[in-house]
Amino acid sequence: LALLVCILIFFFLKWQKNFNQKTSFMLFLLLILIESDKALANILLTLMRNSIIETHTFLVSFVGKSNYFGVFGIYVYLIFITFLAFLSLKIRKKNISKKQILDI
């Protein structure tokens, strides 16, 4: 999770210079909300297991759906990070002149 957040922050900061700031912020906020949904579902599941809160049908439904769709989230993130990587390669500077043998 920490690696994912670091990668998202990197691309978010890189996009701030090249694209609309409002769009990139909304995308970043959407991804943060998805992650907080998973965290909230796990917290509610733990609280229901320990009988701290009562189990209502909408809570059980929310926890079940969040955990079910959370399994597929890693594939969505992999596709998203791959898309961002190709996009950042497309935006990079072209024809960089190299002056020495080992210049990168």
UniProtKB/TrEMBL annotation:
The keyword Transmembrane helix applies. Keywords: Membrane, Transmembrane, Transmembrane helix. It comes from the Bacteria. The chain crosses the membrane at residues 25-48, 68-89. This is DUF2318 domain-containing protein.
